[in-house]
Fold this sequence. Notes:
Helix content is 28%, strand content 19%. By secondary structure, the protein is an alpha+beta fold. The strands form four sheets. The protein has a nine-stranded mixed beta sheet. The N and C termini lie far apart (60 Å).
Amino acid sequence: MLVEAALDYLKKGFSVIPIRPDKRPFIRWEKYQKEKASHGEIQRWWRKWPNALIGLVTGKISDLAVVDIDSAEGAKELNRLIPLDAIGPTALTPGGGMHHYFRCPDGLGNNTRVIPGCDLRANGGYIIAPPSGSGNGKNYTWMRGLSIFEVPLPELPGAYLEAIGKQSKQEKAKVSNESAKVSISFEKGHRDETLFHIANCLLKGGMPASEAEAVLKFLAKNCSPAYPEKDVHIKIASAKERINKKERNIASEIRAWVLEAPGVFSTAQLDRELSLLTRIDANNRAKILNTLCQEGLIERAGNKRGHYRLVDKETAKVDFVNTAEKEIKLQWPFGIERFFRTLPKNIIVVAGESDSGKTAFLLNFVNLNMAGHEIHYFSSEMGASELRGRLAKFDMPIESWRFHAWERSSDFADVIRPDAVNVIDFLEVHDEFYKVGAWIKQMYDRLKNGVAVIAIQKNIDRDYGLGGARSVEKARLYLAMEPGKLKIVKAKNWVHDRINPNKMEITFKLVKGCNFMARSEWQKP
């Protein structure tokens, strides 16, 4: 089974993710470049998508770099740069290509254009591993005797790293044009390569084809022996075709990357993840982004140079004439329903410090509403035994609890029920806090007649949780918890126009980890 193979890769030390048939991840996979999925997460993924392809995240997290060969031209070049005795684990792809597996040097990123027909997946990338299927009856398979479980990962040969422009630590601050230099010789045996290289350089530099051809004809006469002048136009045509192909490839890669970009992105991110290293790459990238701006696909973001955002033109018509205002009758700890009316598609955020009682608050909310509503409770921290222990603290039999409990730590928009009450305990944020707003919006977009109550961590002496103001944008009710105090930071949909609940606070005592005892009335400081 695929899930068993996925778990074997996890045991081997690789970061595993589930991949769609179109080779895109089922999940937001950025976090798995820094932390590996758990055994339970992988089991849940393959229960949900039993035919998912097995993705291995390359780079530092897995100490894995994979050279992907998909053409005879790439194989020929690799034979020169990577000798047979340097080859380690090797997989055959459904398309007739090969994946060579190596250890990943520090700082090595993806590389997709330097060697035609041969790509590299390292930091920022992933590959599909055997025994995943392509959907056409063909599978990724290990070469006999060369599976990752039979032979160790070798080091990437220095000749290959040099060929793809891997810089030393001293050179990382700038891209040296020296890495692009080739051996120039006009002697027999080298004339073709030299003239083609010169044609490439001249056309890339902007010289008209007719002038470049005149230069090559002059050089052809001075080769030893003279290169046939009638073949010079072939070199010009080949160089033009190669340049056009590279520009098309870069354009399609940039377009695909932009469509997957989360929120605002920078050209620095784009260059790093697509390995756009040279000045020519930067010029092409600038032209392509300008074209995407003219198409209306992206736009410049704010006043920061080199920052863009994807333009979301999808809209849903709001039929306010034929829709009656429908309140969802929910009860809240401390009687918050006296001030706030819950409506369909509402997002409620509970931002709390560590040990402030967030989980107790959410379980009390579940207890108050499970008799009248379908509730789905997603826990990122508690397994079945721990959750049972928390519920046992309440003065009621375990069998009396009526809600659905699930283990989940990410991508909540994929699993929440659009028409139910969803409780997220909690939205984990370890870095890249700016993404919090986007994650909450994804949940909002998923809702129809239901609501989502989302717990997030917050720092001491702050009203907003991790993610700052971005975590507040979609919330109709935003609560801040600290030990012994609860504050209404933001509330829309007031019950009474004359009572503004914003900034109201109440103090409390949490008894036995589940019972809230109010020590004051709701009041503004």
